[in-house]
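request received
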Amino acid sequence: MALLDESIDYIPLETGFDDPVYESQIVFRKILKVMSEPGTIKKIKNKLSAPAPMTKATAAICLTLMDFQTKVWMDLPRDSEASKYLKFHTGLKFVEHSSEADFLVFFYAPDEFPPLNLGTDENPETAATVIIQTQSLDDTGKLKLTGPGIKKSRFLNAESIPTSLWDHRGKANSLFPKGIDIILTSNKQLSALPRTTKITMIKTEKG
Amino acid sequence: MTAISGDRKRSSRLKEKTLDGYNFAYLDDQTKRMIRRATLKAVAIPGYQVPFGSREMPLPFGWGTGGIQVTASIIGIDDTLKVIDQGADDTTNAVNIRRFFAKTAGVETTENTSDASIIQTRHRIPEVKLKSDQIIVYQVPIPEPLRWIEPREQETRKMHALTEYGVMHVGLYENIAHFGKVTTSYDYPVQVNDHYVMSPSPIPKFDNPKMDKMPALQLFGAGREKRIYAVPPYTKVKSLDFDDHPFEIESWSECCALCGSSSSFLDEVITDDKGSRMFVCSDSNFCAERRAKGHKGPGLPRKLEIKDIE
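response:
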């Protein structure tokens, strides 16, 4: 298998967690919080450094959730600094085709998702988790969120994500229990949109 | 680089407070990552049972190993843990699990519901309303509510996928036909977010309404059956019922003999072999707090007449 041929002959300059046990627990609780209360924004305070274009939050989430058991697809070439960094620190498996991946990491939000695993009706938990790095995250509007984990409604604005991607997500999630779970990051911030969250686009005056 | 030395200080505190030679919170980090990934999927699909690689724990399956593994994967040094067994903080299972995490994770433990950031429970939900930012971890023996009706996993999976739950209502209907009411008193099935029917673990049905739109995150761990499931905060949890036989909870004609509460779940305590009994709060912390505030119950058990029992 091609995956096994990848020996690590490269040691990245950028550091991972200083204390993996302690730090990954803190990061996990933040991921758990944003996943169970979609649209809330949390901030990573870890001291790790990540190679561009990877931001701290993206790196921290990957280091917390990925290991040799997870198949990962990224929108960067395999020999990019970010890929090598994650391979070195987590031992994850990179896959060629996006549809095979447990985790997809987008450093640049696409117009539409590539083919990806939505799980099956009987085993919806096998669906991929998508991590998208955005330019900024705030609660000023544009997206009105409702669903489990949200008392009435919550607002979220994820800069640089095209409307077509939300439409694509909506279509995929209409197949519930199959669907896409998304973690959004921006610099040190993170937020999440599990498949149960309904998004309504708020039309602003600017359009 | 003060922040890094701050982190170092924390990790040395971690070392000082936890048992030498053991992983933080007992489980190794690889196992925790696997459980964490399963937990995130469980949260994303409310009420769906996510399979996970349940590990052998230093106590037998059936003693809360599922709940312990979930707690071990989420707990951090800054957490405050409360553990209850049938509502009480001072029974064997609760005391041991609390001590287990105090030793292996060095966390603070408490009996006070409001002070806890994580509450692990066997078969009760505390009387005090849980808050946002709290996490309640249930120990689950049998996670599959359809298992009593359909033994085949392949079939129950399909039934869940298609929201095919008619057979659950048949069970309740048979109950009503026989006894005039639904006699299931604990582990009363609920439907989460209008999709998955879920076992709430063997909590009394008295506690079912507390699950609905609860501000705290609810996580469920079944160690022997190797399943994790979850209900995110503010999620609709509806107990199964019929329009003409709406869901009802238990009520008592007595109040708590110690604190006089008439709104809490009461345990019946037999006090002699001549029919004397008293009713006391099952939630020991709730009862103690009320007594500390000066509430008083009728006290000594009253002797029941034979006609009362009949």
